[in-house]
Structure formats: structure tokens, C-alpha cells
């Protein structure tokens, strides 16, 4: 006879599924900690985006109920509004001027700071300060005064025999004054460049110096390839920010985009249509067009990065 073990009726059942239970507990704890971000993203980002997308297909003046008009806002924007295309051209001009010059200045200062032995923290903070201050309306108003008739720039150039006048009153110069304010705020990309430069092995420069490579050859063959991922990151980040420029153009032109729409950047015209003319449906359509344009430009940058962005683990075959 074979004895069979029996379990008392009041005994607890054997534990099963211990690992899945612990996994569910960890997932539950993770969602608890993530819930503020998820709630904030849903309420403050996703829901407004959905409402904006709906309004882009309506005629809405913020006072009456939205009236569905289909693609009318988009067709008017692309085919019937010459100021819209002027704002596009002005924004592209600003981006082409501001982004490359800002990155070049940031890289030059980062290279200079890398060789500084004493007071590096002070210089780094001093060059980063404009990035903290430049986005404020007060600094933009000071910038307007500097480039106005009789301002510091006008007086300086007049003393050198160059009579241009106030830049903000000249259609050909006004957008340059706006771009210079962005270029002046090179602190954030400079810090990123400096961090990237410090990660380049010094042995590469030492070997190049032994082989007789000049400073320019070292810069072209070592610094730029090794720094290309950081350069790509800064380019994408600054490009996205440049397409959304608003405060400098608003302050320099007193919210009008003048003279002759020379500072009418895209977001300033969007603001004018939405809050000045109360065409919120049209402004929503402009916002979505801008989002798609930024997405397309970013996709092109990522696509072309395969030809010039190199990583250490890719054996110089480009980004994957």
C-alpha cells in the first residue's frame, strides 16, 4: 500500500506564480510614479493637440461656437494668403542665418575654453548666461533699443563712417538684428560642444602631432568626425527652436512684423491671426502646418546624417 500525503483542510494553498506577481507589483509601482507625467502629458499636451487639430478644420473666433469648414483654412493658407508665404520666407531666412552662425560661434568658444586651465568655470558660466537671459522680453526690448535709430550700433557704425541708421527700421537689416539676438544666445550649444570635446581621446591629437599634422588637419580629421554626433544633436535642437522663434521678432517689430513684413516670422503671423484677428481656426491650421514642416526637416536631417555623422562603434561607416 502506498501512503499518500494529505493536506489539512485549513492549510494555505501552495504559492504559485510568484515571479509574475512580483512583476505585476513592480509595474504597478512604476505606473504610480509615472502617473503625474502621464496625466500632465494627456491633459496639457495630447488633449490640446487634439482640440487644435479639430479647430484647424473649423471657423472659430473664440467667441462663437466652432463651425466646420473642412480644408478651407488650409487651402486659403496655401493659395490665397500672400502674407503667409512672406512669413515662411522670413522664417527660412532667419533659420539659415541664425542656426549656422550660432553653432559656429558656440564651437569656436568651446574649443577656446577647452584649453583654458584656470577660471574655466567662470568663463563657462559667463558665456552661458545669455542663454538664460536672451529669451526674456526685457532683453529683447533692450536689443530693440540698441539697434534703433540713435542706438549703440547706429552710433558705432556712424563713427566708423558707415551710415546705415537703425537696423530695425530697414527691411533688409531688421531680420539680421533678430538673428543676432539668437546667435548671442550660444551658451547652451557651447556647453554641449565642450562636453563632447572633452570626450575625444587626447592620444589621437598626440599621434597626429607626431605625424606632423597641422592644427587645421587635426580639426578636420579628428575633431569634426569625433564631434559629429554632438554637432548633429545641436543642429537638430537649434533648428527646431529657430523655426519657433517669436519673442525677438515680436519685441523688435512691436508685434507688427515690420518694416514691410521683414520680421514677420511664422509664429508671429500665427499669433496675429489667432489673437489679434481672432481667426483661431486659421491659426490652428498654421500650427499644424508648422509641426509637419519641422517634422519633415528633422526627418531630412536624420536621413542625411548617415553620410556625415560617425560613431566610434560604427568603424567610420556613418550613423545607422
Automatic annotation (TrEMBL):
One of its GO terms (biological process) is transmembrane transport. Residues 1-19 have a biased composition (Low complexity). The keyword NADP does not apply. It is found in: Cell membrane. The keyword Transmembrane applies. The chain crosses the membrane at residues 29-57, 92-113, 125-146, 173-197, 226-246, 280-302. Keywords: Cell membrane, Membrane, Transmembrane, Transmembrane helix, Transport. This is Sugar ABC transporter permease. The lineage of its organism: Bacteria, Bacillati, Actinomycetota, Actinomycetes, Kitasatosporales.
Amino acid at each position: 500500500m502506498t501512503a499518500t500525503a494529505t493536506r489539512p483542510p485549513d492549510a494555505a494553498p501552495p504559492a504559485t506564480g510568484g515571479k509574475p506577481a512580483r512583476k505585476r507589483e513592480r509595474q504597478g509601482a512604476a505606473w504610480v510614479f509615472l502617473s503625474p507625467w502621464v496625466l500632465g502629458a494627456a491633459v496639457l499636451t495630447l488633449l490640446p493637440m487634439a482640440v487644435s487639430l479639430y479647430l484647424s478644420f473649423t471657423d472659430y473666433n473664440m467667441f462663437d461656437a466652432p463651425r466646420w469648414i473642412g480644408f478651407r483654412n488650409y487651402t486659403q493658407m496655401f493659395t490665397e494668403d500672400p502674407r503667409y508665404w512672406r512669413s515662411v520666407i522670413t522664417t527660412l531666412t532667419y533659420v539659415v542665418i541664425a542656426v549656422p552662425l550660432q553653432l559656429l560661434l558656440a564651437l569656436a568658444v568651446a574649443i577656446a575654453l577647452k584649453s583654458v586651465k584656470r577660471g574655466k568655470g567662470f568663463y563657462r558660466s559667463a558665456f552661458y548666461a545669455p542663454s538664460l537671459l536672451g529669451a526674456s522680453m526685457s532683453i529683447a526690448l533692450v536689443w530693440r533699443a540698441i539697434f534703433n535709430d540713435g542706438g549703440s550700433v547706429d552710433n558705432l557704425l556712424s563713427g566708423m563712417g558707415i551710415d546705415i541708421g537703425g537696423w530695425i527700421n530697414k527691411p533688409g537689416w531688421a531680420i539680421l538684428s533678430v538673428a543676432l539676438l539668437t546667435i548671442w544666445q550660444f551658451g547652451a550649444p557651447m556647453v554641449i560642444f565642450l562636453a563632447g570635446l572633452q570626450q575625444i581621446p587626447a592620444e589621437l591629437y598626440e599621434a597626429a602631432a607626431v605625424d606632423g599634422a597641422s592644427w587645421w588637419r587635426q580639426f578636420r580629421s579628428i575633431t569634426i568626425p569625433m564631434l559629429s554626433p554632438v554637432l548633429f544633436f545641436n543642429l537638430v535642437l537649434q533648428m527646431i527652436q529657430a523655426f519657433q522663434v517669436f519673442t525677438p521678432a515680436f519685441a523688435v517689430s512691436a508685434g507688427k512684423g515690420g518694416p514691410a513684413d521683414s520680421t514677420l516670422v511664422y509664429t508671429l503671423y500665427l499669433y496675429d491671426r489667432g489673437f489679434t484677428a481672432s481667426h483661431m481656426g486659421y491659426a490652428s491650421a498654421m500650427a499644424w502646418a508648422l509641426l509637419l514642416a519641422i517634422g519633415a526637416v528633422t526627418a531630412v536631417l536624420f536621413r542625411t546624417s548617415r553620410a556625415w555623422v560617425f560613431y566610434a562603434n560604427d568603424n567610420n561607416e556613418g550613423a545607422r
